[in-house]
Amino acid sequence: MKVAIIGTGNMASGLANTLAGAQHEVIIGSRDPAKAAALAEKIGHGAQGGGIEAATQLADVVILAIPYGGVAEAIKAAGSLSGKVLVDITNPISADYKSLVIGHTTSSAEEIQALAPTASVVKAFNTIFAQLLPTEARQGKTLQVFVASDDAAAKAQVSVLAQSIGFDAVDAGPLSNSRFIEPIGEMNIHFGYFLGKGTVVAPAWVQV
Ligand SMILES: NC(=O)c1ccc[n+]([C@@H]2O[C@H](COP(=O)([O-])OP(=O)(O)OC[C@H]3O[C@@H](n4cnc5c(N)ncnc54)[C@H](OP(=O)(O)O)[C@@H]3O)[C@@H](O)[C@H]2O)c1
Q1: Among the atoms of ligand 1, which is closest to the Cα of residue 13?
Q2: What average pLDDT values come out for the chain (208 residues) when binned by 10 residues?
Q3: Would residue 199 count as lying in a domain?
Q4: Which of 81, 107, 74 is nearest to 92 (CA)?
Q5: Which of 66, 71, 76, 188 is 20 to 30 A away from residue 95, measured at CA?
Q6: For ligand 1, mutation pick of 6, 10, 32, 63 (most atoms within 8 Å of CB)
Q7: By three-state DSSP, how is residue 202 classified?
Q8: CATH code for the domain in which residue 137 is found
Q9: Residue 4, burial from CB neighbour count under 10 angstroms (0-12, 13-18, 19+)
Q10: Rounded to the nearest whole angstrom, what is the distance from the C-alpha of residue 73 to the centroid of ligand 1?
């Protein structure tokens, strides 16, 4: 798949690395194109890097790997998102990581869909710590990625993408279920950072 990754931070570099290693065509987009180019060069596997609009326009799937507070600006910078699958991995958290800044009646995914009405927004990866994106870091365990969207084809595409890098994609229903998936991401942050488990944990829905 042709995947644009917006951002050059922990999640962006982890996803770019793993996806490029799994033969996807990765294009990194940053508000600092030189940073994206440098990251792409470091990753290799044919990854490219440049500006946000250039990366977006080359891709079918665009992953927003930036803080929730930056998404409006990044969506504006992306240019047309018509027909694109836009993956929201954000946890809309406070500066101290301890609470969500929106929820109950909306979610970051729904707010992103409102900002990009011509794109198909898919919620995914928000419950996976960046430290667990490299396949080897998962030590043979298959972690679940909760995937929510109102567009069945887009949800299927992102599920295939997650499976291609070794995750179990769990259909989590419509995009509005992000109201429940984002608090799970926040609980995971509490387990990882404030309850002593470290960034090696991930939530799983267990079926008996
Ligand atoms: N870290 C995790 O384990 C984890 C797990 C699940 C979900 N998430 C979510 O993933 C997202 C990224 O987290 P992260 O840990 O990778 O963050 P990070 O390491 O701090 O990186 C953030 C990136 O976003 C870019 N950025 C910030 N504001 C921007 C804007 N207005 N326009 C364009 N780019 C902007 C930054 O660019 P500059 O370098 O130019 O500042 C940087 O490349 C967050 O929403 C977070 O909640 C993180």
Answers
A1: 16
A2: 98 98 98 98 98 98 98 98 98 98 98 98 99 98 98 98 98 98 98 98 97
A3: no
A4: 107
A5: 76
A6: 10
A7: coil
A8: 3.40.50.720
A9: buried
A10: 13
Q: Residue 72 Cα, ligand 1 centroid: separation in angstroms?
A: 13
**Residue 43: inside a domain, yes or no?**
yes
In a domain, 182, yes or no: yes
pTM for the predicted model, two decimal places: 0.99
Complete DSSP assignment for 67-131: -GGGHHHHHHHH---TT-EEEE----B-TTSSSBSS-SS--HHHHHHHHSTTSEEEE-STTS-GG
Pocket of ligand 1, beta carbon within 6 A: 7-12, 30-32, 35, 65-68, 70, 73-74, 89-91, 126, 128-130
> 112 with 121: CB under 8 angstroms?
yes
Question: How many domains would you assign to the chain?
Answer: 1
Ligand 1 nearest-atom number relative to CA 12: 16
Q: Which residues fall within 8 angstroms of residue 79, CB to CB, at 6 or more apart? A: 53, 56, 57
- Which uninterrupted H or E stretch holds 143? none
Q: How many CB atoms lie within 10 A of CB 122?
A: 29
Q: Nearest Cα to 167, choosing from 1, 22, 56, 5?
A: 22
Residue span of the structural domain in which 17 resides = 2-194
201 inside domain: no
